[in-house]
Amino acid sequence: MEGFVPTEDALRSIPAYELDVPMKSVLIGPDELSARVRVLGREISDTYRGSVPLLISVLKGGVVFLTDLMRAITIPHHIDFLQVSSYEGGTKTTGTVRIMSDLGSNIAGRDVLVVEDIVDTGLTLTYLLKQLEIRGPKSLRVCALLSKPDARRVDVPVAYLGFEIPDEFVVGYGLDYEEKYRNLPYIGILDL
Ligand code: IMP
Ligand code: MG
Question: Atom 13 of ligand 1 has which residue's CA nearest to it?
């Protein structure tokens, strides 16, 4: 992870130039991301074989991760989306979490896997899991691409984790700063 230098090919595919990204450093490169996502996909396939799990992506940050993850999962599964909001634009959690847009499916009796971009304080997921638990899923687990253990304020169980990262504000691969930089194919630390 440390000292990652994108190849010339990778750099050409990165729209960073057009975005004018104030990037301090690249934390996780495209190859490392896809290798880890493939491993997670295999683990999830092994756990849920025989069931048709419902993968719930938390919009909008989790959507890039979900679309790669679902193609690394080899068993039949369904997907759905919901949107929660806690940030309202900035880089610090407000502690106030709202469901902005709810699921289309009934999760009662289903094996549910929440697919999140990042667990920071843990407040968003804690709230979300509580709301989903009330609806009576058969099982309820979390798959998160990133976790910042040093920023955690409440303990949340993460069954599948991509990477632990330092307590820095990161963008790319779905994660944004003021709605920008989601399309970067790597995770980078923003120079704020
Ligand atoms: P938490 O409630 O503090 O755990 O925050 C969870 C949500 O905040 C994530 O799902 C992200 O949408 C957002 N978030 C937390 N840290 C970052 C970051 O470093 N970059 C971009 N978004 C972040
Ligand atoms: Mg999120």
Answer: 118
